Amino acid sequence: GAGVSQSPSNKVTEKGKDVELRCDPISGHTALYWYRQSLGQGLEFLIYFQGNSAPDKSGLPSDRFSAERTGGSVSTLTIQRTQQEDSAVYLCASSLGTLAYNEQFFGPGTRLTVL
Amino acid sequence: AQKITQTQPGMFVQEKEAVTLDCTYDTSDPSYGLFWYKQPSSGEMIFLIYQGSYDQQNATEGRYSLNFQKARKSANLVISASQLGDSAMYFCAMREYSSASKIIFGSGTRLSIRP
Predict the structure, then answer these.
(1) Cα separation of B90 and B110, whole Å?
(2) Is there a contact between A48 and B102 if contact means CB atoms under 8 Å apart?
């Protein structure tokens, strides 16, 4: 497909378990972003990749959160020892570049529920 | 520090009327971009319109226009001839050239169109 894809679309896990969320950006997009959206809230920036490097990790809420990107394409967001407050929709976006006018294209999100 | 403020948590509008969604922003960077996104109940983020800080004219995209008042740091979205399908959350967002790594989002406005 031509858009950003994310998997799984839904993930239910038990408190304390680790989870991995995957994002496939649009082909050719060098920039990739992860956001978190809690119920009824706006988007909270987590991390951004330019190529495979992450110049800005300022939004990661704790050291339980990490992300990597390989081959300048697929990215994985890992949450270790999940907590109930991690329950949210995790959105991935990609853009051609990081200029101010570069529009971000969003994936459908992964809804994470921590029981 | 960059900041986006949307003061209308919810709005009700009669079908076919025009509606204005408010957005104010704060930045010390003279170069920035402003975006509006629509998020229907299905959850995907849909890009609507972009305005650059140096653009001389207000941006327009079909029924969407952006009322950009730079001195007031205001970037209101105007939807003409509203339709039932316009019912959604609307987010205003900004990216500064100096920190082009991320887009900062407002808290959103929930727009409901009455038939």
Answers:
(1) 6
(2) yes
User: What token pair was written down for A94?
Assistant: 């990609």
Surface-to-core class of residue A71, CB atoms within 10 Å of its CB (0-12 exposed, 13-18 middle, 19+ buried): exposed
Give the model confidence (pLDDT) of B58-83 as tens digits.
Answer: 999 999 999 999 999 999 999 999 99
Cα radius of gyration (chain A): 13
pLDDT at A1 over 60: no
Contacts of B101 in chain A (CB under 8 A): 48, 50, 55-56, 98
Residue B114 has pLDDT above 60, yes or no: yes
Please check whether residue A92 touches B, CB under 8 A.
no
CA angle A3, A72, A38 (to 5 degrees): 55
Confirm if A46 and A77 have CB atoms less than 8 A apart: yes
Phi first, then psi: give them for residue A85, nearest 5 degrees. Answer: -70, -10
Tokens of B52: 């650059």
